[in-house]
Design goal:
Blueprint: H1 2-11, H2 19-45, H3 52-63, H4 84-90, H5 98-123, H6 132-142, H7 144-152, H8 156-171, H9 175-188, H10 196-201, H11 207-222, H12 230-241, H13 251-257, H14 262-287, H15 291-308, H16 322-325, H17 338-348, H18 359-394, H19 405-408, H20 424-429, H21 431-437
Helix pairs in contact: 2-6, 2-7, 4-11, 5-6, 5-7, 5-8, 8-9, 9-11, 14-15, 14-18, 15-18, 17-18
Pfam families: GT87
Keywords: Cell membrane, Membrane, Transferase, Transmembrane, Transmembrane helix
Family: Belongs to the glycosyltransferase 87 family.
Length: about 450
């Protein structure tokens, strides 16, 4: 009863007394209503793109001991691409009829995203009473990546939760559990597999035991239960290694769509790979002791490169970059500049740039904004970290790190002058001066 009273007291309308309260009171209704709109309107309505139908059909076939990997890869329809381990984990969705199953899967993803939101707040030491809570919730559910994850009904929300669990456990040095969280995600989709490198460069090798052991064990269990498990390796994996020129924001995807020569595509990929390699080395060399900044920034650069450089990258993969984007609250963040947020706008916004009046320009903006956004973000991080390194080397302070001096030196407190005791008459005489400094509220 007491807890209910506390909850209702929090919801009681009242006038904000501070700027922080004003912002919170303004953002919470926007955040909550955006969540409700995305879940109960957009997601339930669905879209012509339906990522859930092939998953449901494959799960149904698996439960009935029939072939699963029967997709026609020459079509542009969504295909079933999960490995046998993923089929084993997701098969229970086909126990009930399709529509109810889809609604429950939307609810599961929503719950996973909300829990990931809470873990992300805790990762950066924010509480539910902070301004960051509604701001982050609104930003997440207003983004393209969360919106289309729910509308298309895919598993990315669960992968985001696995990523946040991995980061929390990794920073707490609970390596086997961190690997288990990552391994479960890899068993379904390899989206987070590059994060094994984060554990490797930190010397947390036990992560690999469960990070690789869990998907291997699940595949071994699923193999005799699947009618055509071998086809995943003979048919699906070769398809995944190919680049396609539709629904593909990786460099090779847009290069194929616009007909760029192969040598130019390869050159761009090699140059961007070099940018990523230098950035990752500088982060490891000079920031690995700053654990929160290093783990979130290193993993963000790594995942962005993984979306941009290989054969397939889709816009809603950007959900996995939320921990990286949250580093903007850190003093030494590499994202505290406008080019970084121009890049983030490119791959996070739900806006569409297709134009009826300027069709060619609108189509190019829409198709290229994600590729350019990911690429620009990598270049911005490279430039920020590289500039810090060059400045520190020029000033002869590399042994102390590469953060600018103004970041590392705490501001000196102002000397406090002794204030004589004032009587009431002096206070009255000086009232006008006090009013000039701090106007009274009307």
């Amino acid at each position: 009863m007491y807890r209910a009273q506390v909850l209702f007291r929090q919801l009681e309308p009242r006038t904000a007394r501070t700027s922080a309260e004003v912002i919170k009171f303004a953002l919470w209704p926007f955040a909550v209503m955006t969540v409700l709109n995305r879940v109960f309107i957009k997601a339930i309505n669905g879209f012509v793109t339906d990522d859930y139908r092939p998953v449901y059909n494959a799960s149904f076939e698996f439960l009935n001991r029939r072939p699963v990997y029967t997709a026609d890869f020459s079509s542009v329809d969504p295909h079933y691409l999960y490995p046998p381990s993923g089929t084993l984990l997701i098969a229970p969705v086909a126990v009930i009829e399709y529509e109810l199953s889809r609604w429950l899967f939307i609810a599961l993803n929503t719950a996973a995203i909300l829990l990931a939101w809470y873990l992300l707040l805790k990762l950066f030491n924010f509480g539910l009473n902070s301004v960051a809570a509604p701001a982050l919730l609104l930003a997440m559910f207003a983004s393209e990546t969360v919106t289309n994850t729910l509308v298309f009904t895919n598993v990315n929300g669960c992968l985001l939760l696995a990523e946040l669990a991995f980061l929390h456990l990794l920073l707490k040095r609970r390596d086997l559990w961190a690997g288990a969280a990552l391994g479960l995600s890899i068993a379904v989709k390899p989206t987070l597999a590059p994060l094994l490198l984060v554990a490797a460069v930190r010397g947390q090798w036990k992560v690999f035991i469960t990070g690789l052991g869990v998907p291997v064990a699940l595949n071994i269990i699923a193999w005799p239960l699947s009618k055509d498990a071998g086809k995943f390796f003979t048919d699906v994996m070769p398809y995944l290694m190919e680049s396609r020129d539709y629904f593909n924001s990786a460099i090779v995807g847009n290069a194929a769509y616009y007909g760029l020569p192969e040598w130019l595509t390869l050159l761009v990929r090699v140059l961007m790979a070099g940018v990523v390699a230098v950035t990752l080395w500088l982060l490891w060399r000079y920031y690995r002791q700053d654990e929160l900044f290093f783990v979130t920034t290193f993993s963000g650069v790594l995942l962005t490169a993984y979306f941009l450089l290989p054969s397939l990258g889709q816009m809603y993969y950007s959900m996995m970059l939320f921990p990286f984007l949250m580093t903007v609250v850190l003093r030494n963040s590499v994202l505290r500049n406008w080019p970084a947020w121009l890049a983030i706008f490119g791959f996070m916004t739900y806006d569409k740039w297709l134009s009826d009046r300027w069709q060619d320009i609108g189509r190019n903006l829409e198709y290229l904004r994600v590729t350019f956004g990911w690429g620009l973000l990598l270049i911005v991080v490279f430039c920020v970290v590289g500039d810090r390194y060059l400045a520190a080397r020029r000033q002869g302070r590399l042994q102390y790190g590469i953060d600018p001096i103004w970041m590392t030196s705490a501001p000196k407190p102002e000397p406090v002058a002794s204030v004589p005791q004032l009587d009431d008459e002096l206070i009255d005489d000086d009232a006008s001066a006090i009013d000039d400094r701090q106007p009274a509220l009307k």
